[in-house]
Every structure is written in structure tokens, then in C-alpha cells.
Give the backbone structure.
Amino acid sequence: MNAQAQPSPVRAGQTERVVPFQSGDGFQCNLLNIRGSMPPNKGPVLLVHGAGVRANIFRAPVQTTIVDYLVAGGYDVWLENWRASIDFKPNEWTLDQAALYDHPYAVKTVVNETGSPEIKAIIHCQGSTSFTMSAMAGLVPEVKVIVSNAVSLHTVVPGFSVLKLNLALPLISLVTPYLNPQWGLHAATLPAKAISLLVAMVHHECHNPVCKQVSFTYGSGFPALWRHENLNEPTHEWVKQEFAEVPISFFKQIGRCVRRGHLVSVTGTRELPADFAAEPPKTTARFSFFAGAKNLCFLPESQRRSYEFFNAQRKNYHSLNILENYSHLDMFMGQSAARDVFPLMLAELEKQN
Ligand SMILES: [Zn+2]
């Protein structure tokens, strides 16, 4: 366990049940099933977090989280802690592993636990890229509607991030197998101290060292993953405990994807396409692509291209929502996301085909 202990994020009137599941290659993951005081009257919806965080990233200290919003809307809410979760021992994961081994088994567990043969999913960032890989490879046929935030099939990043992936990553990979925004608080090793010093020299946008390390790690902005004006103060403080190790193995894969412009697999397994944009997707799921117009981790062009790809496969079926005043994670953590974002996501979940 890397992340710091914290008060329970479970709301009054809600219950949380931890459901462990074993991935296809034996990695121990889990699901958190959140329910309200009334039994759900709609089907299950699976929420999949990004890299170097955990399922709890969907439960920021705001008045109404996406979890609260979905529970209130009658949904049976399931949060997946896949192998990138900082609740687990750091491991050198790839998107391929998550796509092949974690998400299909998470989906099967939700189907088995609920008895519902069909489920919906809300997927974010690297939870979204890897889950999109699962879907496109035909590994999660039970998932009928997918709301994707920030990035999915296409991977377009700012020019400075391309430079970092191409020039800095090979050097960093020589000295550490992980990056860790916790280094802003405690830098024990020489590489950690050096990167902390660099971040402190370059980033002056706020006084939260983890917030600044997150921007260094994941993007090209000040900050990169949210607009400060979209976060309340408790959430800006809370991020200190919600980001930890992310492996260089992941950055090497996403670097290859960025150079190609879209997802590619790195393991050479026959179960995944080598190039995900080279063949029609093996899924009938309806995709709803979301992006913040001010995202400085993955540019909104990523989701535009993915929408165009899927729309070319099946016209007038998928959708695209670009939100003008949002960035990356503030789509979920923003103090006004319950007003600006969640109603749109709920409408996409409930849209009739
Ligand atoms: Zn900050």
C-alpha cells in the first residue's frame, strides 16, 4: 500500500462492498460496489480509473461526485481497481496487460455478481485507452455503452510532451523504473531528489508539491490535469494522497502510441491487434467520447479523431462532447462537474440506440 491512510470516502447513506477478482494472469485486483439506501433500479455501471491513481479518484471531496450522481440516478456503481491502482504493490504494467487480463475479468465479475448480462462503463485516461483496447479486441462483449474521457483510440499530446517522451524518458528509464508524484513530499533516492528539484525550479503555479509533480509526470501545463479554478481547496489538498507510482513500462508504450498517433500493442500477442486503428473494432458498444477543451495531458484532438474513426465505422451512433472550460481530471473532480459534466454523461448512458 503506497497511498496514505485517509478517512473513509463512503458517504452517509451509501455502502461500499469490496469484491476481489483475479485477473487472467493471476494479478489480484478488486472492485468497489457502491450502493445507496435504495436498491438500484438501473443496471451496473463500471468506472475505470487512470494511471498512477486508484478507484477513489472518482470520489473527490466535492458536494456531489460522479459516484453520488450515478447512485442517485438509480445505477449500481462499480469502481475497478486494476493493476495500475496505487492500492496495489507497484508493478511494471502495460496497457496490453490491462486490456487482456484486467478489464475482461472485471466485467465478468460484475456480470456474475449482478446477474445482469449487459453493463455500461465510464472510463478515464489510461483506464480508457486500455479498456478501449479490450473492447476493440472483442474481449468485453457484455459492455454495451462506453463513456470515455480524455483519450481512447487516438493519442495526441502537446509538442512539449512529445519531446519529453522522446528525449527525457530514455534517460529517466536508466535511473528509475517508476515516476512518483509523492516525491514532492518525500524524495528518498537520488533520481527522486533530482526530479523534485527540477519540478520545484520549473513549476511555480501553486504551493502543492504533488500537484506540481503530477503536471511534470503527465503533461505540459501549469497545471496539466486540471484547471486550478475548477477545483475546490479540499480537492487540491486531497490530490496529495491520490497519486503515486506509475511505471516507465507504461510511458514506453504510450510513447510508441503517440509516435503512431493511436494505440498499438507491445506484447505481440495474437489476442490484441498490433495496430488498433488498422482494422474494424470487434465491438458493437456505443461510444460517447468526452474531452475538456483545455486538456494539456491529451489534447481534445485525440477524442475528435477517435469519434471520427468510430463514426466512419457506424454513422450517427457514437457521440462527441467537448467541454469548453474543462481540462482532464477536473471533468470528474471539478467542484461544478455535477452541474456541467455529469448530466451529459448520464444522458449518454441512457440514450436509446
Ligand atoms: Zn496545484
Observations:
- The beta strands are 15-22, 28-35, 44-48, 76-81, 119-124, 143-149, 178-179, 246-247, 286-292, 319-323.
- The chain has twelve helices and ten strands.
- The first strand starts at residue 15 and ends at 22.
